[in-house]
Write a structure and sequence with these properties.
binds iron/sulfur cluster, alpha+beta, de novo design (two linked rop proteins), 9 strands, 13% strand, two-stranded antiparallel sheet, 5-stranded mixed β-sheet, Ubiquitin-like (UB roll), 13 helices
Length: 314
């Protein structure tokens, strides 16, 4: 057996190498107990500049602990979408308003999700936070894959948490129980909340399960997957409470909790909604139109086509 293989075998048996620190997870170690697979293109892309200009040049950008620059994929309800490279430590506000150009819809920006699908959703009041590894993690999000999704006030934060949870369930490899089963249980509870069947006990169980999944999962996917749920509960609790206690979706997004109607004072009887409704749910009356609740499928087409803002969603 060659020396390297002998060392490997001995290492596996715990005879050589440093003892594994308890706080370093085995999924972060490879051959000889070291990181052996660096497949992040962004990291590799920094190497030529560091070789050409020196490590101190790279380290002069960024913060004390998070050095250099970071590329974010800016997307969502924002004017300028695309990839942006910024120095670590820049504020979320600068990225969203100066680089991103602010809201694309004219509506107030409500939140930003950083770090990809398992990142947390941060509210307006935290937009002066410096974008670095430590500050984002402390706030319940992360730098992660560099995703940055901007959301305006028409977004339901409970629905956002549900959307990312579904995505992460699909991504879970299923190897460990907390991630495989815990995430699905969380989705069941969040489905209940968005469908008007949520309870306060359910919300407590959701938080407890999210904490357990975060603590007990094997790899980073499971450990971070509860972030969208935990951060939206932390920063947007009144939205969860409206769904649970009042059976109401304040943003008018969760289908089971919303109701469409036509405001007779605003309606100009143009007939656009009548022609566009795919379910024949709009009834023509003498001077106006009205919606048949039994036929309405809450698809939102009437609201989209009405140029007079005469369709109410509550
Ligand atoms: S935490 Fe990682 S290892 Fe465990 S099921 Fe999820 S993806 Fe798989
Ligand atoms: S599209 Fe608007 S204005 Fe036209 S009939 Fe429908 S509700 Fe009235
Ligand atoms: S929400 Fe959809 S189904 Fe309901 S009335 Fe409007 S267009 Fe028709």
């Amino acid at each position: 057996m060659c020396g390297e293989s002998t060392a490997l075998m001995a290492s596996l048996e715990g005879e050589v190498g440093e003892p594994r620190p308890k706080d370093i997870h085995t999924t972060e170690r490879g051959f000889m107990d070291l990181p052996t697979n660096l497949n992040n293109v962004e990291t590799w892309a920094n190497v030529p500049s560091i070789i050409n200009k020196g490590a101190s040049w790279f380290a002069s950008k960024g913060t004390a602990k998070s050095k250099g620059t970071k590329i974010f994929a800016l997307t969502g309800q924002i004017r300028n979408t695309g990839l942006v490279e910024v120095p670590m430590g820049i504020s979320l506000r600068k990225i969203i308003y100066e680089i991103g150009g602010g809201s694309a819809t004219g509506k107030k920006i409500k939140a930003v999700q950083t770090g990809g699908p398992s990142g947390g959703c941060l509210p307006q009041k935290l937009f002066d936070l410096p974008v670095d590894f430590e500050a984002l993690t402390e706030a319940g999000s992360m730098v992660g894959s560099g995703g940055m999704v901007v959301m305006d006030e028409s977004t339901c934060m409970v629905d956002v948490a549900k959307y990312f949870l579904k995505f992460l369930i699909d991504e879970s490899c299923g190897k460990c129980v907390p991630c495989r089963i815990g995430l699905s249980r969380m989705l069941e509870i969040i489905n209940d909340i968005t469908e008007g069947n949520g309870t306060e006990e359910g919300l407590e169980l959701l938080k407890e399960t999210a904490d357990t999944v975060s603590m007990a999962s094997l790899c980073a996917l499971g450990k971070t997957a509860p972030n969208p749920v935990l951060s939206t509960i932390k920063y947007f609790l009144p939205e969860y409470e409206a769904h649970i206690k009042e059976k109401r979706c304040p943003a008018g997004v969760c289908r089971e909790l919303i109701h469409y109607s036509i405001n007779r004072d605003k309606c100009k009887s143009c007939g656009a909604c009548f022609k566009a409704c795919p379910h024949g749910a709009i009834i023509k009356e003498e001077k106006t139109y009205k919606i048949d609740d039994d036929k309405c499928q809450k698809c939102g087409v009437c609201k989209e086509v009405c140029k007079f803002n005469a369709v109410n969603v509550k």
